[in-house]
Design goal:
Largest sheet: 6 strands, mixed
Order of helices and strands: HEEEEEEEEEEH
CATH class of one domain: Mainly Beta
Number of helices: 2
Strand content: 25-35%
CATH architecture of one domain: Sandwich
Number of strands: 10
Length: about 210
């Protein structure tokens, strides 16, 4: 009987190390690794007011195991409910992007936050629903209305100086005509005196067209 007890004790001693170390070996050989670290989001909200039109929003998202999904949650400024849209990975750069059409990002802009989830289900936010990031959008510029040229005929008044100048030119021509008439009359009278008393009648016609 004593020998049987010794054999049982030895069997227990041989089995116990296997029971203790087997879970450790299985854990080391298992491909599953516990992941408790969420992704990291690198994103800077736009600074200042953006011009109206389609708006592109980008973010760099990395994770030590793998990124599962990146979502943009947004709403027009002044509203309550968020819309959700998937951000697309640009190649293997780690940059995720989404483009909102102009109708979705109209003035005065949108409020938004980014939600990233890794393959293990860990989630991180950039911005929060109660304290979102903001993208301000300007009002579209008003179209310019061009009208054809208009021509208005305006009567030009003659200045007193110009009127006086024209009047003076007319009187100058009249004076010259009188002087010429007097000279011809004198010449005709002098010829009659030399002949000893004869008087000749001379017909003289002077036409003067003073400038306007």
């Amino acid at each position: 009987m004593y020998l049987c007890r010794i054999r049982r004790l030895m069997a227990v001693l041989l089995i116990t190390p296997g029971l203790v170390f087997s879970p450790v070996l299985l854990a080391q050989q298992s491909p599953f690794v516990a992941d408790f670290d969420p992704p990291v989001i690198d994103h800077q909200a736009p600074d200042g007011i953006q011009a109206s039109g389609a708006q592109a929003i980008t973010a760099t998202v990395t994770d030590d195991v793998g990124v599962g999904s990146v979502m943009l949650k947004y709403r027009p400024i002044g509203t309550d409910n968020y819309k959700s849209v998937t951000m697309t990975l640009l190649g293997g750069s780690g940059v995720y992007m989404v483009t909102l059409p102009a109708a979705e990002a109209a003035s005065p802009g949108i409020e938004y936050y980014i939600e990233a989830r890794d393959v293990s289900g860990n989630t991180v936010l950039k911005g929060f629903p109660i304290s979102p990031l903001k993208l301000s959008v300007a009002e579209p510029a008003a179209p310019l209305v061009q009208s054809g040229p208009s021509v208005v005929a305006t009567p030009v008044a003659q200045s007193e100086t110009e009127a006086d100048s024209g009047s003076g030119r007319k009187w100058l021509w009249i004076g010259l005509g009188v002087l010429a008439l007097g000279g011809l009359a004198a010449a005709a009278g002098g010829g009659g005196g030399s002949d000893g008393g004869g008087t000749d009648n001379v017909d003289l016609t002077i036409t003067a067209n003073p400038p306007e």
